[in-house]
Amino acid sequence: MNRKGGLFRFVALGMAIVLHFGVCLSFPNYAYAVKPLKSPGGAVFVAKQAPVMVSIFANPERIEELVKHVDFSPWKTKLLKNTGIDYRQDIQPWLGEEMTFAVTTLDIDRDASNGQTPGYLMALATQDGEKSREFLQLLFSQRVLAGADLTTEEYAGVKIIADSASKTGEKLAGAVVANQFVLFANDSKVLREAINNVQAPDLNLPSNREYQTAVEQMGGDAVAVAYLNLEAIATWQGLKLPVENFHSQLVSLNLDPQGIILETAAIPNHELPTPSPSLNKPVAAVAYLPDTTSMAVAGQDLSSLPNSNLALYWQQLAGALAGKEDVGIGQIVQPLAELQTQAGINLATDLFSWVNGEYAIGLLPNPDSPNPDWIFVTEKSPQTNTGIAKFDEIAQQHNLAISSFPLESQPVTAWTQLTTQRTPTSNKSKLTINTIPLALHTSIDKYEIFASSLEAMQAALTSPQNSLLENRTFKTSIANIPKPNQGYVYIDWNSSQSILSRQIPILQFIKILAQPLFQQLRSLTISSYGSSNQVLKGRIYLYRKQ
User: Fold this and answer.
1) Which of 446, 484, 491 is CA-nearest to residue 468?
2) pTM, full prediction
3) Nearest alpha carbon to residue 383 among 341, 354, 418, 422
4) Domain segments of the chain: what residues?
5) Among candidate residues 1, 66, 72, the one with its CA nearest the CA of residue 27
6) Most buried of 179, 264, 356, 515, CB within 10 angstroms?
7) pLDDT in tens, 76-134
C-alpha cells in the first residue's frame, strides 16, 4: 500500500467524527460547558515520533448535547452499513468521553522496498470493559463472515484480535487495554507497539520534550487537541515545507458562544527573537480604516513585523498552503509593495524602519480593479518628516509629480505619474495628459495616513464616523484575542476571499472540503502573544455568522 493509500473503513469513523465535530461547531445554540483536560489519556499509546494525533474530549452523544440541530445519524448509518453493528446498541453503552486518532508511523514494517504503509491507531475511552470486549467479539465475528481469517494473541497481558484483509481489502486489529481504552489499528504490529509505549513510557508521546513544553503552555477547557509533527507530516504526504520556522505544534480547539478558538503552541527550530512590543488594548490607528476593510494588520513597531512571532506564524501557515517561500506577512499588503517597483521606494528601509509607534494597514475592495486599495496609518515620530521628505526626493528621481490639494477640507499630497495619450476626434487625434496617482498622504492629529487612491484616502478621512474599530465583528474578534499581544491580522472572510485565493490557490480546495464551516464563517483573527523565546504561542479566532 502506498503512503496515500488508506484504511478507509477503519479511519472513516475517526475522520468523520473530527470533520463533523469541526463543522458542527459553526452552528448556533450549543452549551459552553466541557470538562477541561490538560492532555489526552490516549496519548500514552502514541509513539513520540508520530506524525499526527487528534483527540476529542467527548463522544458523539456529548457532542450532540453541545451542538443542537445537528443529526449524527447519517454518518453512523453509513459507516456501519453492512457490518451487522448497531451503534446505539453495540457502541453507545460503553463509549467514554475521549476519542484519540493517530498516524503512529510512516511505514509499519520500516521497509521502503515494499512501499509505505502508515500505521493508524484509534483509542476510544471505555466506561465498561466487559461490554467493550463483547463489541470486539461481535465486530470480528462479522468480519469473519465477510471472508477474513481471524487470529488471536496474548501480548504483554493484553488479548489482541486481528484478521487478514476481508472483502473490503483492509486489515483490522483490536484490543481492550486495562478496561480503560479500546484500541483499533490497521495491523497488529501497530497495537503491539502501542502497548509497548505504555509499558516503556520513554517511548510515548507524553515523554516527548517538545510535546511536554507545548502542553505546559496550553490552557484548559479544550474540547479537542491536535499534535502535529510537521516534518513527519510533510514526509508522509510527499511534500516539502518551503518554510520551516517551527517543526512541531500543539493546537487546542475551544468553544466560544460566538465562534471557535484555536489556541496553538509551536516549538521553533531556532531561538525566537525578542517579542515585539505588547499591546494591551486595540490599536487606535485602526480608527482610520473604514468598516468595509477586508483585511487589516495592526500592531506597534512596524520595523519588527517581518521577524515577529506573528509573521513567523503567517509565513509557515501560508507557505505550507501556497507551497512557496515568498508568503511573508508583507505579502498580505502586496498592493502596497507595488510602490517599490513604480516609485523606487524600499519599504523596509524607506518606510518600515521609522515606524516605531502603532500602525494599521488595511485592504479595501476595489470594484474597478482586481487589486484592492490600501490604507496605511502610522503614529507620527521624530523621524516622520525626514522619512516623508525622503519619499518626495525618491519620487522626483523617478519622474513622479508631487502636488498638493484639499480633500474633505484636509490638505493632501499626491505622488502621480504623468503619461500622454492620443485620442481620436472628428478631424484628427488629440494628445492629452493622464495623471495616475500612485500614492497619497496627509497628516491628521498624531497620525500620518497613506493611501493608494483618492477613494481610499477619502474613506480614511471619513472613517472615524464609521470605522473598523467600531465594527461589531471586529470588536468581537479582538475581544477574544489575549492581552497583551504582539499585534493581529484581521480578515473579513466574505470580502477577502478573492484576495487570499490569489495568494493561496489551494484555499479554494480547502473551502470545498470544509464548506459548511466556511459558510458559517464571518471573520478570522490571528494573533501571537507570550514572552518566551522557546515557545511560539498564538490564537486564531473564528467568528461565525450570528
Assistant:
1) 491
2) 0.82
3) 354
4) 8-214, 273-398+443-520
5) 66
6) 264
7) 555 555 566 777 888 889 999 898 999 999 988 887 777 788 899 999 999 999 999 99
